[in-house]
């Protein structure tokens, strides 16, 4: 299946909490295929289902040559938050210092219902937190410190895509 268009800031689907995957069926298998196709494009570390217009708890990732997906992820983090440059496909062209934990782990299931776990530091930790935020109806802009958020919102308003 081809990659799907990414929903942009302002689309209500991005601010909606995603529903758990209750049953793996052809629709969910198709969603995973679309997520994997969508994340394989250059410069993409992750794509959440909500970013392609589907409010189910699923995301794909593409970090350090490892491409995969997870359904119904539950996030655990550890370590003191650090400010890390972060961007988002749904907020194109903007990069801001975002507070993120240095370690993250998600536990969820695969298409066969088997339990899976993903964890890491660096870009993987950032991607796991970022994509799980999407499933909770949050954008990285929501995590910015007040002055940084004000600057980011000004940039959004002045962007050519908003």
UniProtKB/TrEMBL annotation:
UniProt-listed CDD domains: Pep_deformylase (cd00487)
UniProt-annotated catalytic positions: 131
Cofactor binding note from Swiss-Prot or TrEMBL: Binds 1 Fe(2+) ion.
UniProt KW keywords: Hydrolase, Iron, Metal-binding, Protein biosynthesis
Residue numbers binding Fe cation: 88, 130, 134
Known EC number: 3.5.1.88
Gene3D superfamilies for this protein: Peptide deformylase
Reaction catalysis annotation: N-terminal N-formyl-L-methionyl-[peptide] + H2O = N-terminal L-methionyl-[peptide] + formate
Cofactor names: Fe(2+)
Pfam families, alphabetized: Pep_deformylase (PF01327)
GO BP of this protein: translation
GO MF terms, alphabetically ordered: metal ion binding; peptide deformylase activity
Summary of the function given for this chain in its UniProt record: Removes the formyl group from the N-terminal Met of newly synthesized proteins. Requires at least a dipeptide for an efficient rate of reaction. N-terminal L-methionine is a prerequisite for activity but the enzyme has broad specificity at other positions.
Annotated family: Belongs to the polypeptide deformylase family.
Protein name: Peptide deformylase
Organism name: Agromyces cerinus subsp. cerinus
Gene that produces this protein: def
């Amino acid at each position: 299946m081809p990659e799907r268009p990414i929903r942009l800031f302002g689309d209500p689907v991005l601010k909606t909490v995603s529903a758990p995957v209750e049953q793996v069926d052809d629709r969910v298998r198709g969603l995973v295929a679309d997520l994997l196709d969508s994340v394989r494009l250059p410069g993409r570390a992750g794509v959440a289902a909500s970013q392609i217009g589907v409010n189910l708890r699923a995301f794909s990732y593409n970090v350090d040559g490892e491409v995969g997906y997870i359904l119904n992820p539950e996030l655990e983090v550890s370590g003191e938050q650090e400010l890390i440059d972060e961007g988002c496909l749904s907020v194109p062209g903007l990069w801001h210092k975002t507070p993120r934990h240095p370690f993250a782990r998600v536990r969820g299931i695969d298409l066969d219902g088997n339990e899976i776990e993903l964890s890491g530091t660096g870009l993987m930790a950032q991607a796991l937190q970022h994509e799980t935020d999407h499933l909770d109806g949050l954008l990285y802009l929501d995590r910015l410190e007040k002055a940084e958020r004000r600057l980011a919102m000004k940039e959004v308003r002045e962007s050519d895509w908003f």
